[in-house]
Specification:
Largest sheet: 4 strands, mixed
Strand content: 5-15%
Order of helices and strands: HHHHHHHEEEEEEEEHHHHH
Number of helices: 12
Oligomer: single chain
CATH topology of the largest domain: Butyryl-CoA Dehydrogenase, subunit A, domain 3
CATH architecture of the largest domain: Up-down Bundle
CATH class of the largest domain: Mainly Alpha
Shape: globular
Number of domains: 3
Helix content: 40-55%
Distance between the termini: 48 Å
């Protein structure tokens, strides 16, 4: 049975983009997913061998310029990668996704020529991976005021504090640290093997189970002025601009999970017989399937439109927030109904719905909590008052 998402994308993107989407999906189907259930049941992160396969496929260099060994793709290519990999598993999609949208993107946008030459070729092949150091134990949504501090010392800077919820920390070669400096915040490129950097995988996480999520502590880590990314005291601008693209990627994974659930439900509803016929003949079941289809079609149209705006430099932070809120919330709510349609079989890990239902919670709080982003998106609607 043809996937509904494929049918909609055929009308929204050109043939070259569609071929890229399909090739990435086929790659995952053939090379990654046959082992996925075993990794889940053994509580195993994506193994290095699979990371290497994705690197060989060029997934880590999707948006990196060909001048640095990347694929030279656009944000649309990255979003199509999120849709194709996210259909199978969000943990799979976020690994090259975060490496691109949160790791390599700040270097692409704000790095000096020297920093680009030094890092982008290895980032493009997956030999090197950057992690985004934004969230902290005491600063989640209030990311503009980090507790991690960089103090000026002889020969450079000294960084103290801790970052957490850092995706891809296990595989990272460097972390882009958002730190408080004297007159604002500044981003620093810090090697993970620098003296005083200590990484620990966050224990007990029950979401994105095959994705690495680490806590990174900085105990007097010394860096130089050459390690500053962008301009001194202008770090928050880097964070915000990076997150706009990241929120589009979260929306793509939300829709990918919804697309999986839609295909699973419409197939099951035609095969599962109760009361002398398939359950798909009941209007309650039809309602859920149709609601999923409507949200998927609308979401894909909106997502592709905003992604094109991102590539043309016209996407607003409010629009990025709104699509992330809407897609993650609706997909999450509908996954519950999808599981209800399928009944007890939906509780089995091999059926796949529990994986997507569980992981969609991350889409509601990752790249900015939906509650906080609602305030951001509402401000232009009521500019004459101060919103909390």
């Amino acid at each position: 049975m043809k996937r509904m998402m494929d049918s909609y994308l055929e009308k929204l993107v050109d043939d070259d983009k569609l071929l890229f989407y399909q090739s990435v999906s086929d790659f995952a189907e053939e090379n990654i997913m046959p082992n996925w259930l075993d990794w889940e049941r053994n509580h195993q992160l994506i193994p290095d061998s699979a990371i290497d396969l994705m690197g060989d496929m060029g997934l880590f260099g999707t948006t990196i310029s060909e001048d640095y060994g990347g694929q030279g793709g656009s944000q649309l290519d990255l979003i199509l990668m999120g849709l194709s990999l996210g259909y199978h598993a969000q943990s799979l999609a976020i690994t090259p996704g975060a490496a691109s949208s949160l790791g390599a993107k700040p270097i692409q946008l704000f790095g000096s020529d020297e920093q680009k030459q030094l890092h982008l070729p290895d980032l493009a092949t997956g030999k090197r991976m950057f992690v985004f150091g934004l969230s902290e134990p005491g600063r989640g949504s209030d990311a503009a005021n980090p507790q991690v501090r960089a103090s000026k010392v002889e020969g450079g800077w000294q960084i103290k504090g801790e970052k957490c919820w850092s995706t891809n920390a296990k595989w990272a070669s460097h972390v882009v640290v958002h730190a408080m400096t004297d007159d604002g915040t500044t981003c620093f490129i810090v090697p993970m093997d620098a003296p005083g950097v200590n990484y620990q995988e966050m224990a007990g996480k029950d979401l994105w189970k095959q994705s690495s999520t680490g806590s990174i502590a900085f105990d007097g880590v010394k860096v130089t002025d050459d390690d500053i990314l962008g301009e001194l005291n202008n770090g928050f601008k880097i964070m915000v601009q990076t997150l706009n693209g990241g929120r589009l990627f979260i929306a793509s994974m939300s829709l990918a999970s919804l697309a999986f659930a839609l295909d699973k439900c419409r197939s099951y509803a035609q095969e599962r017989e109760q009361f002398d016929g398939p359950i798909g003949r009941f209007q309650r079941v039809q309602d859920v399937i149709l609601d999923m289809d409507i949200v998927l079609e609308q979401g894909l149209n909106w997502l592709i439109t905003l992604t094109n705006q991102y590539d043309s430099g016209t996407l607003t932070k409010e629009s990025a927030a709104k699509i992330k809120i809407d897609c993650s919330r609706k997909a999450s709510d509908l996954l519950t109904l999808a599981m209800e349609v399928c009944g007890g079989v939906a509780s089995l890990d091999e059926f796949g719905l529990t994986r997507h239902h569980r992981d969609l919670f991350v889409c509601r709080v990752g790249e900015g909590s939906n509650f906080v982003l609602k305030s951001l998106a509402t401000r232009p609607l009521m500019p004459d008052i101060t919103l909390q």
